[in-house]
Structures are given as C-alpha cells and as structure tokens.
Write a structure and sequence with these properties.
By secondary structure, the chain is an alpha+beta fold. The chain has 13 helices and four strands. The model has no long low-confidence stretch (mean pLDDT 97). The structure holds glutathione (GSH). Glutathione (GSH) binds next to helix 1 and helix 4. The site of glutathione (GSH) has 12 residues, from helix 1 and helix 4.
Length: 263
C-alpha cells in the first residue's frame, strides 16, 4: 500500500494513526504542500482536488481520510477499531462523517493563523497567488484568499468556531462519563477527531476547551500517550515548526477568544 500524504496534514495524521494502530506495512510518498506538490499533474490523476491523503492499494485508489481509516481497519482483524453493536457503529459513522466539516473548520483556523503567517514570511504575493490558482475548486480558492486577506477576522473563522463548539458539546457529553467516544473503547471515532483537537492544542488554542469543556483534556492526553500518536503525529513535527505553531497561535488567541465568547 502506498500513502500519498504530508507530515503536518491533519487528515494524513488520521490515516497514519490508523496504520500504526493496525500495525500495517505501507509505503510513504510525502508531498510538500507548501511547495504545491499536491497540484502536480501526475498526483491530480489520483486526487483531482489536489489534496492529501490518497491511499493506493493495488488497483484501489481511495480518497477521504475517514473512508481510508475505515478501509484500513477492515483489512485485518488485528486490533479492531470499529464497535460491533449497530447503535455504536452508527455513532462511529456519525463521527467519521462529521469529520469532513470539522476538517474544514480546522483548515479555516490553521490557514487564518499559522499558514497565513508562514506564507507572508516565506513567499511573495505572486507565489501565493499562483499556488492558490492551482486549486481546481473555485470555492477552495476564494476561501483561501479570504483567510489570507482577513486572518482571524474572516467569516470562515467564526463559522469554524461554531462547528467546533458543536463538536466540543457532543464530545463532552460523551466523555463526561466515558474514556473514549464510542462504546467505551478506543477506536475510529477517536481517530476521526484526534488530529483536529491536537492541531488546536498545537496552535495554543486549548483555551477553547479547558474552561468550558473539562472532559476534553484527559481524552486528548490519553490519545497523545498512545504509541500510534508518537509514530504518526508527534515524531513527524520538527521542534522548530512545533514552537512556531505555538507562538503564532498564542498571538492569535486573544482575538479568537473574543469571537469564541460570542459563539
Ligand atoms: N476531507 C478531506 C480533506 C483533504 C484536505 O483538504 N487535505 C488537506 C491537508 S489536511 C490538503 O491536502 N490541503 C492542500 C493545501 O491546502 O494546499 C480528507 O479528510 O481527506
């Protein structure tokens, strides 16, 4: 199996966590998103939107991180990550489906803060424009322009915080009386959202949950303590990048906190 992915991409992280939990062998094809490698013509034959991850297993080409994670779980009986009762499976599918919206929200927060600052530091306006122009979907292009222009004042950020509030409300309701999101056992529901909550943590935005949602932090730390987290996320983020993320996020937090208070 070949995974086209990026070390820092949240949806790639979900897939790598699943691969690690299942102890499956895979070949890595790393794409540098900042350089725009996801828009290479060859890669776009596999993934026409020009995004990661893509899994190629023989003649099967899979996109969408939640779909890939579920596929990987079904490849072997080792460490099953899906519950068996129909009601628990439905709950798990809800988390896997919601992850698409949650991903879009995390993308808004990340590009309004860290990625915006990185682009301003590393690229000329012409280079940024040229990279955005390569996204085939006009909605993705206009969203990206808005986030780079307006930062945390972009309406996409308020929308993202609304989605995240719903996520924390529902996670919290479960985690107040359980260690994991579905059927009291670690599995795909947790994997569906861990990379997103971890990204907020890495952006110094844990204030979103520490006061309002005390059940989130123990769940996050329990995920971060798993060997799969270390292999799939922790070890792949260089310390300079991790520090910059904390720094840029903490500068954005006062403004985000004000918007959050009104959500
Ligand atoms: N819903 C898709 C989202 C895919 C996606 O947007 N991937 C991001 C990385 S997490 C990407 O490749 N972005 C390219 C870019 O922003 O330049 C999934 O979960 O697989």
């Amino acid at each position: 199996m070949k995974l086209y992915h990026n070390n820092n991409s949240v949806c790639s992280q979900k897939v790598r966590v699943t691969l690690a939990e299942k102890e499956l062998a895979w070949e890595s094809v790393h794409l540098d998103l900042a350089k725009g490698e996801q828009s290479n013509a060859e890669y776009m034959k596999l993934n026409p939107e020009g995004v990661v991850p893509t899994l190629v297993d023989g003649d099967i080409v899979l996109r969408e991180s939640s779909v890939i994670a579920e596929y990987l779980d079904q490849l072997s009986d080792y460490n099953p990550l899906a519950p068996t009762a129909p009601k628990d499976q439905a709950a798990m599918h809800l988390w896997l489906t919601r992850a698409i919206d949650i991903h879009a929200a995390i993308n808004s927060v990340t590009f309004a803060t860290l990625m915006r600052q990185n682009q301003l530091r590393d690229s000329t306006p012409e280079q940024v424009k040229a990279r955005i122009a390569k996204f085939p979907n006009p909605q993705i292009r206009s969203k990206r322009i808005d986030l780079y222009t307006n930062g945390v004042n972009s309406p996409y950020v308020a929308g993202a915080l609304f989605t995240l509030k719903r996520m924390f409300d529902d996670m919290s309701a479960i985690l107040e009386s359980a260690d994991w999101l579905t059927a009291g056992q670690y599995g795909l529901s947790d994997i569906a959202v861990i990379a997103y909550v971890d990204r907020l943590d890495r952006l110094s935005l844990s204030g979103l949950w520490t006061e309002r949602y005390p059940a989130i932090d123990p769940w996050l730390r329990a995920n971060q303590a798993r060997p799969s987290y270390k292999t799939a996320i922790g070890d792949l983020i260089p310390s300079a990048a991790a520090e910059r993320s904390l720094q840029v996020g903490s500068e954005a937090w006062p403004e985000i906190k004000t918007i959050w208070a009104g959500i």
